[in-house]
Every structure is written in structure tokens, then in C-alpha cells.
């Protein structure tokens, strides 16, 4: 599904530069649910952003579903993001003047889908996250958990190969976090490959594999016994 | 290609971000409004000015006579110079190719009456050319013609206000007006842009006046216009040649300033033209100034808008928006707002000029107006400026890495 070899990334800071990723090797199979952990500054978000084609690596190989991702033009990156990837952000990143349904339908708009079709599909995904009744509400009229579910529905709408979540529970209280995680586990059960950045141990333990980063290198990469959210509640 | 979805996106963005849309719309509308009003007022000033000097043909030359102030060729100072028909003929023949229109004038003040109404008016006895020199406009009937002149017929052409005064609300045409006891047939009624005084005049054939009021062939004044093809220097040369010839003819010392006076409007009209040029420059400066202020305003707002939308742009890009679609959505939105707002400003501006305009005549502003095409070009300029001002930040924003745009701050 996803192969990364010797990935390097540094950011210029004034005259010097900060070496954030120092040769990452990572392989993720289809259907996995991986948590990337590490303290802040460990490079975990940078790694996720490169995987999400939101940022570019300085050197190294990145192959997504057999497709080498390199020398991306803006246009090409946009197409790949749209076709292959779904994003879930800590701060939801919904467009504040669009209602839930319109937000979910937006990736479909960029796929060039017809209005009627995309609204039906968006509605289908909203139903899936249990927010069909809130379709016409604006983000500010929804709770944090509801907004994150809208964001998940949006990430799913384009039927991506890979779901990327950057601290998906970071802005939520524990109860809501677990609800969201339960939902993400369900998606994984249905076969979605999920990559998630978190710094919370309990959230990481709900995944099937934990990759620990420190100072730009992988310290530890182990499979874990997934803890089902349902067991907590 | 008409992309309905794109337009839906744009209208939603405009509609849901009202403050932003109104702000930029207001800037543009206000700039266009100011542009229209300032331009209109400046044009009004120009109109007033034009009217003040526009009554007589600008290529006119007026020739008057007076008393000599210097002895010359054995004749004493203080001699009165009197033009006669032969002098009129002399000028007409000598300068045949340089004179466009020429007329003599005899002035008389008379008491005119029709039935019970009576009043005092100035009579100008003239040649038919006078109509063109004075830019007299015939409202009804006709002007004095050559036939009247040849036969010294007792006909008059009266001003619009004379008709109003004496004939009340009836038409004067064809009726007989009594001028100091002698009946004259009214063959025409005229109007004149020169104001009320010009419309309280009575014109009659010069030969009639010479016959009736003295039985002589005296002429008080000779007015002419020179061939409009003469340039400024040629026109001045023409009038000085005229002065010289007339002084010789009447045996007047060449240094005598009073005996024969020639006033050439070309000299005046040069000043008028210079003033007009200055006024036009001021108008242009005002117009461009307003426009530049508008451009700066809309540019600032566009930069602000793009900044405000950075996060939205990041989200859209993460979801698969191409850079082109980002630029077009921002640009079309701004162009749409500018165009609509510009049109609103144009309508308000023209409306204000229409309503307030007539009340400004007391402040030397007459018919303040601005041509629609000018305001539309101004609006288009603003739209283009807004487009350019929006394009660069939008282009830059479309190139920002989504990760930068999405950074929480």
C-alpha cells in the first residue's frame, strides 16, 4: 500500500536548517491501522504531511499503491490528493460558511462529479457518520465531535485508498475522542487503511500498530493488540 | 465554458461572506460615485464658462469708431469718425477672401407697443449676416434677408422675450408692432443663448433704419467674422491690416488709439482656450486621482481578502483543488463584486447629478453631467485594477503549500 525509503526532510531556520526527518523507512500494508507517536518536534506531523502530499520530502522514495510520488506539480498533487487520500485534521478544517452537506460534497466537486450525484453521495456519508439530520447546519452550529464526524465523512466521500488523521482527537474531550476512535476503528474494520498521528497512549493503543519517532528517526515499530473502544465504555 | 457549479461556489462565497463583499463593493461604488460627481461638477464649471464666452462666434472682429485724439494730415484732433455704407462695402471687397460674414449695425432705442402693451427696447439694424455672427436662433418665421435690405421694408425680427412682453401669450408672427409710431411687420421670432438681454432685442434691416431714422447711410459699428481657416497669427495679422487700411482711409494718425477701434476675439479666445485647457487638466487630475484612490482601495481589500481566505484555500487544496480553480474562484468573485458595485456607484452618481445638478447653477455649475461611456470606462478600469490586484495574491495563495495554509494560528 505504502512504501517509504530513506526519507529526509529539513526546514531552513534562519541561516541554518533543522533536520526533521533523518532517513525514515516505513511500509504500510493495506488494511492496517497505524499510530505514529512521538513528542513534539519528533517529526511525526511532518511525516504525515509528506505522506499526504501536503509537503514535499528533500530526498528519499515514496510509493503509494505502486505509484511513485515524486516531482509533483501542484496540479498533479491536487489530483492525487483528491483520488487517493482523505484527511482528518485536529481542528477539523471545515469551510465555515458551508453547511455539513456542502463540506462533505466539496472533494466530489473537485472530482468533477455532477451536483445531484455528489449531494446524494455526501448525504450517504453523512448518514454513515450519523449526522443526516444535521446536513444543513453550519460548522459553528455543531459540537466538536459532530464537526469531526463531518470531517470524517468528507475524508471518506472521495473513497480514498488511505485515510490520514493528524491528532484527530486532539481538540476533543475523552468521551468524544473515544466516540470518534470507535468510528475510525469501524472504518478500519471495513478495510480502510488508516494512518494517524497522536501523542496520546490510549488513542495509540486503539490502533493495530505503533510507530514511535524520536528526533527524526523511527525508534520503535511494533504491532499491538488493538484495544476496542467498546471495551472501555 | 459556463460552469454552473463554479458560479454556485462564487455566489455562495459572496453571499455567506457579506461583510467582505459589502466592504469591497462599497469601496468600488464609492470611488465610481465620487468619480462621477467630481467629474460632473467639473464639467458643470466648464459649461458655465463656455456659456459665458460662447455667445458670439470666436472668430469675430468688432470695428468701432470714435473721435480722433491726434491731429493728422492737417486735420485737427477731436474729429468724429463716422462709418458709412461705402466703408462696409470697402471692407467686404478688400478682404473678400478673408471675411466669412460681415454686418453693419445701427443702434436705436425705441418704444415698442402692441395694443395696450408697451416697453422700451434696443433696436439693432443689421445686415442678414448678423444672424450668424450673433448665433441668433430663429424660433419662428425668418431672419432679415437681402430683399428686405434692398427694399428697406418695414419688417422686424423680435426676441422671444419681446414677444412674451408685448404679445402676451399669442404669436407675434405676421402681426404689426408699433415702433415709436411706425408699424413694422414681425417676420420672425428668435432665441439666443446669450441670456435674457439678448432676447429683448429687435432686429430690422439696416437700410430701413437708415431711411427712417435720419435718412443717411451711417453705420455705428461693423462686425465681421474672419475665415475660420485662418490660424491665430494670420487672424491677428488680418485685424492689424484692417486697422491700418481704415486709418489710412479716414486720415487718422497711425498712433491714434481712439478714432478706430478694432477688437479681435481671437486674442480673447486664445485666453479662453488656455483657461479651458487648464480646467480640462484639473478635471483629468481629479478623475485620475479618484480612480487611483479607488484602485488603491480595491487592491488593499483584495490582498486582505486573499489573506483572510488562506485557510480556506489550504482546505480546498487538501481536498484536491487545482491552483487554477483557486485563482479563478477568487478572481471571478472580485470581478463580479467590482462590476456590480461599479454599476451601482454609476447609477447613484448619475442620479445625484440629475437631482442636485439644477440647484447648483447659482454656484457657477451648469448642467453637471458626465458621459456614461466615461464612467463605464472608469468602472472597467477599476475592475481590471481589482482583477490585477487580486490576481497576484490569489496566484501566490494558490501556490502556498496546503500545510502552511492549514497551520493553526
UniProtKB/TrEMBL annotation, chain A:
Name of the featured protein: ABC transporter ATP-binding protein
SUPFAM superfamilies: P-loop containing nucleoside triphosphate hydrolases
InterPro entries for the chain: AAA+_ATPase, ABC_transporter-like_ATP-bd, MacB-like_ATP-bd, P-loop_NTPase
CDD domains the UniProt entry points to: ABC_MJ0796_LolCDE_FtsE (cd03255)
Superkingdom of source: Bacteria
Any one Pfam family match given in the protein's UniProt record, by short name: ABC_tran
Cellular component GO terms held in the UniProt record: membrane protein complex
One GO MF term: ATP hydrolysis activity
Gene3D superfamilies the record matches: P-loop containing nucleotide triphosphate hydrolases (3.40.50.300)
Stated family: Belongs to the ABC transporter superfamily. Macrolide exporter (TC 3.A.1.122) family.
Alphabetic keyword roster: ATP-binding, Nucleotide-binding, Translocase, Transport
Residue stretches making up the ABC transporter domain: 2-233
UniProtKB/TrEMBL annotation, chain B:
Membrane spanning stretches: 21-42, 277-305, 326-353, 373-392
Source organism superkingdom: Bacteria
Membrane topology: Multi-pass membrane protein
Entries under InterPro entries matching the protein: ABC3_permease_C, MacB_PCD, Macrolide_Exporter_MacB
Keyword Nucleotide-binding in annotation: no
Residue ranges annotated for the MacB-like periplasmic core domain, each copy included: 21-235
Compartment(s) where it occurs, according to its Swiss-Prot or TrEMBL record: Cell membrane
Positions of the ABC3 transporter permease C-terminal domain: 285-402
GO molecular function terms listed in the Swiss-Prot or TrEMBL record: transmembrane transporter activity
Family matches, as Pfam families: FtsX, MacB_PCD
Keywords associated with the record: Cell membrane, Membrane, Transmembrane, Transmembrane helix
Cellular component terms (Gene Ontology): plasma membrane
PANTHER family for this protein: ABC TRANSPORTER PERMEASE YTRF (PTHR30572:SF4), MEMBRANE COMPONENT OF TRANSPORTER-RELATED (PTHR30572)
Protein family according to the UniProt entry: Belongs to the ABC-4 integral membrane protein family.
Record's protein name: ABC transporter permease
Organism: Snuella sedimenti
Amino acid at each position: 500500500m505504502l512504501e517509504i525509503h530513506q526519507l529526509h526532510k529539513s526546514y531552513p531556520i534562519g541561516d541554518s536548517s533543522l533536520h526533521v526527518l533523518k532517513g525514515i523507512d516505513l511500509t504500510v500494508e493495506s488494511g492496517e491501522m497505524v499510530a505514529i507517536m512521538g513528542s513534539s518536534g519528533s517529526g511525526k506531523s511532518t511525516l504525515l504531511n509528506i505522506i499526504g502530499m501536503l509537503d514535499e520530502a528533500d530526498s528519499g522514495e515514496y510509493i503509494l499503491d505502486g505509484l511513485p510520488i515524486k516531482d509533483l506539480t501542484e496540479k498533479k498533487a491536487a489530483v492525487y490528493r483528491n483520488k487517493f487520500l482523505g484527511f482528518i485534521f485536529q481542528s477539523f478544517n471545515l469551510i465555515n460558511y458551508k453547511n455539513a452537506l456542502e463540506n462533505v460534497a466539496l472533494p466530489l466537486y473537485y472530482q468533477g462529479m455532477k451536483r445531484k450525484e455528489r449531494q446524494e453521495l455526501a448525504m450517504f456519508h453523512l448518514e454513515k457518520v450519523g449526522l443526516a439530520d444535521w446536513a444543513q447546519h453550519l460548522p459553528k452550529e455543531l459540537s466538536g465531535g459532530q464537526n469531526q464526524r463531518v470531517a470524517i465523512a468528507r475524508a471518506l466521500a472521495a473513497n480514498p485508498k488511505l485515510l490520514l488523521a493528524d491528532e484527530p482527537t486532539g481538540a476533543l474531550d475523552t468521551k468524544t475522542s473515544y466516540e470518534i476512535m470507535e468510528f475510525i476503528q469501524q472504518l478500519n474494520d471495513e478495510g480502510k487503511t488508516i494512518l494517524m498521528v497522536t501523542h496520546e497512549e490510549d488513542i495509540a493503543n486503539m490502533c493495530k500498530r505503533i510507530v514511535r519517532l524520536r528526533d527524526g528517526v523511527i525508534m520503535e515499530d511494533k504491532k499491538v493488540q488493538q484495544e476496542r473502544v467498546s471495551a472501555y465504555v | 465554458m459556463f460552469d454552473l457549479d463554479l458560479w454556485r461556489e462564487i455566489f455562495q462565497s459572496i453571499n455567506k461572506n457579506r461583510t467582505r463583499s459589502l466592504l469591497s463593493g462599497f469601496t468600488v461604488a464609492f470611488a465610481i460615485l465620487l468619480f462621477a460627481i467630481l467629474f460632473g461638477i467639473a464639467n458643470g464649471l466648464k459649461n458655465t464658462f463656455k456659456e459665458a464666452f460662447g455667445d458670439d462666434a470666436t472668430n469675430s472682429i468688432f470695428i468701432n469708431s470714435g473721435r480722433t485724439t491726434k491731429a493728422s494730415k492737417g486735420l485737427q484732433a477731436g474729429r468724429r469718425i463716422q462709418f458709412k455704407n461705402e466703408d462696409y462695402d470697402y471692407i467686404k471687397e478688400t478682404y473678400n477672401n478673408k471675411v466669412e460674414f460681415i454686418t453693419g449695425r445701427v443702434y436705436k432705442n425705441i418704444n415698442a407697443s402692441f395694443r395696450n402693451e408697451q416697453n422700451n427696447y434696443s433696436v439693432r439694424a443689421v445686415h442678414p449676416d448678423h444672424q450668424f455672427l450673433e448665433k441668433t436662433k430663429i424660433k419662428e418665421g425668418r431672419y432679415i434677408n437681402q430683399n428686405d435690405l434692398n427694399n428697406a421694408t418695414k419688417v422686424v425680427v423680435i426676441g422671444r422675450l419681446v414677444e412674451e412682453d408685448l404679445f402676451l401669450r399669442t404669436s407675434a408672427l405676421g402681426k404689426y408692432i408699433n415702433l415709436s409710431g411706425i408699424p413694422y411687420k414681425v417676420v420672425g421670432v428668435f432665441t439666443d443663448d446669450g441670456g435674457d438681454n439678448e432676447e429683448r432685442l429687435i432686429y430690422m434691416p439696416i437700410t430701413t433704419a437708415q431711411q427712417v431714422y435720419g435718412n443717411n447711410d451711417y453705420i455705428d459699428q461693423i462686425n465681421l467674422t474672419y475665415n475660420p481657416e485662418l490660424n491665430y497669427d494670420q487672424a491677428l495679422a488680418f485685424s492689424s491690416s484692417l486697422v491700418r487700411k481704415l486709418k489710412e482711409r479716414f486720415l487718422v494718425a497711425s498712433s491714434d488709439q481712439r478714432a478706430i477701434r478694432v477688437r479681435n476675439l481671437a486674442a480673447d479666445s486664445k485666453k479662453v482656450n488656455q483657461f479651458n485647457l487648464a480646467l480640462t487638466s484639473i478635471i483629468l487630475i481629479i478623475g485620475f486621482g479618484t480612480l487611483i484612490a479607488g484602485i488603491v482601495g480595491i487592491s488593499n481589500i483584495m490582498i486582505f481578502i486573499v489573506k483572510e481566505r488562506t485557510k480556506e484555500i489550504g482546505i480546498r487544496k487538501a481536498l484536491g483543488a487545482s491552483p487554477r480553480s483557486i485563482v479563478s474562484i477568487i478572481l471571478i468573485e472580485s470581478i463580479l463584486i467590482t462590476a456590480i458595485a461599479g454599476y451601482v456607484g454609476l447609477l447613484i452618481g448619475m442620479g445625484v447629478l440629475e437631482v442636485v445638478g439644477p440647484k447648483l447653477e447659482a454656484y457657477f455649475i451648469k448642467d453637471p453631467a458626465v458621459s456614461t461611456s466615461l464612467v463605464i470606462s472608469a468602472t472597467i478600469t477599476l475592475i481590471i485594477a481589482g482583477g490585477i490586484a487580486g490576481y497576484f495574491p490569489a496566484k501566490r495563495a494558490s501556490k502556498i503549500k496546503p500545510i502552511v495554509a492549514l497551520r493553526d494560528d
